[in-house]
Amino acid sequence: MSAAPIPFAFNGVIIRRDEAERVSLTDLWKAAGRPRKKKPTEWLARESTVDLLDMAQSLITPKMGQLEFVASQAGRHGGTYAQQTLALSYAKWLSPELHLAVNQVFFERQAEERDPDKILDRAEAAYRRRGFTESQIQARFMGKASRSRLVSVLSHHGVKTPNGFRLCTNATYKPLWGGEASHIRQRKQLSEKANTREHMSEKELVVLHLAEILAAESIEQKKVRGNKACALECARAAQSVARLIVQHKQGNHLPPAS
């Protein structure tokens, strides 16, 4: 089974898509400000919408199989989902601004499907708008890859709950910077919920990247399991990196390779 599509947001509302690429009409309605008499059920009951659905159904060929254009999901996080073209039509009925924004996002996603490098380009542009330097952006990309790998390794080795991952993160931070994530936020004068990685220098990101690579390798090689055991390996890896930094500062370099 393929992974669920990445959601996007408008006016602070995440617009979800299901695994069939259908878009949440409920989320679109919320993003438009929950306008009265424009709920998804009311739009679906309109004569023009019924005609649109009939035409869409008439275009289905036997090779396409059963194609469900509109689907409902029950539960607290459920709602009404519709095929992308229908969702664009609903967005246009809700708000011209929303229609243009959603249309732009869909075009971007389609372009990224054809050329995944465009995802990196979009992320790079977003970091630039936030004031990141070129070197920080590259270090951030590199760090995200090592962090993702470490999280995957931790998950497969019995690290459970957010507390378990937090324990491993703090075990990495302490040898490198003398304190937990909360300590780093205080030192950098950040809010309690700030992402510490987004406020690290290029050097700090590279150091963290190396520590997390070593930790992931060590956990896999030693086959350790559980929150405490994995946190210990994270601490050991960070201690090794911290010692390398100290040696470099003291001028104790390794001899050149023969």
Write the layout of secondary structure elements.
Elements: E1 8-10, E2 13-15, E3 23-24, H1 25-31, H2 40-44, H3 47-58, E4 70-73, E5 79-82, H4 84-94, H5 96-114, H6 117-129, H7 134-156, H8 161-177, H9 181-187, H10 202-222, H11 227-250
Antiparallel strand pairs: 1-2, 3-5, 4-5
Helix pairs in contact: 4-5, 7-10, 8-11, 10-11
Protein name: KilA-N domain-containing protein
InterPro entries: KilA/APSES_HTH, KilA_N
Pfam family, one: KilA-N
Question: In total, how many beta strands?
Answer: 5
Q: List the domain count as a whole number.
A: 2
Structural class by helix and strand composition:
mainly alpha
Summarize model confidence as the mean pLDDT.
82
Any low-confidence stretches, pLDDT <50, length ≥5? none
Radius of gyration: 24 Å
- What strand line-up does the widest sheet have? 3-5-4
**What proportion of the residues form beta strands (DSSP E)?**
5-15%
Biggest sheet statistics? 3 strands, antiparallel
Q: What is the share of helical residues?
A: 55-70%
Distance between the termini: 50 Å
Q: Count the DSSP helices.
A: 11
**Helix and strand element order:** EEEHHHEEHHHHHHHH
**Bulk shape:** elongated
